[in-house]
Amino acid sequence: MALSKFTETLIRGFQTSPNGAVGHHRVALRVNQAIDAFNGLNADTTRSRSEKAPLYKQLQEQHGKAIKADLDKFGNELLARTDAHEAKVAKVLNSVSLADAVQIVAGLKAAGLTAEQFRSAIADSGEIAVAMARVPQALSGLSADVATAAALNHYPDLLAEAAANERDFSAYSSLSNVVDRTIREIGLNVDEQALASRFDEAALAPRPEPKTQAEQNGQAAE
Hints:
Elements: H1 18-43, H2 49-93, H3 98-110, H4 115-124, H5 126-134, H6 137-140, H7 144-152, H8 156-188, H9 192-196, H10 213-221
């Protein structure tokens, strides 16, 4: 199967954030380098299949290691950004104490607001929205997911950040599949049987001066 290189359009990923584009670009360049070397080796007519075997093996191991290292770095960067985002969300949701949140929600219920008035209050006030997300569902009448989403609607920067992280993780997942497929395809060209029977070139170098049996026996006697 022919391997396809990343084009200039997709080398930075699809709809990735600026940070995500940097990580994706770094790995994609590595993949393209490996494919260039792979295609060059395939086109080499001066070597037999058995002669190419150690070169395919070297290509798979060395390029594979470099690609995986950059892919891991990209993944770790995404995880760090996710942790930072979740910390920001937690800070927002804890900006109203639980005691204050209970008081706010209980006061709204005591005021006899209609469901429509409740929704308007949540949409108009970030404090009320956060309070609804803080109290138990039995008091708010909203599931945790719905209440949290309503609270975060007051923080468009966090929503944009979450969307960017999601797109970057999607790009990372697709990139990871490409990396696995590329390394696997290169490995399919490694002739293990030819490698197993290949003469070790290190054996061509002269060994230290051999000792006769008598010399060996003399050393043993000492």
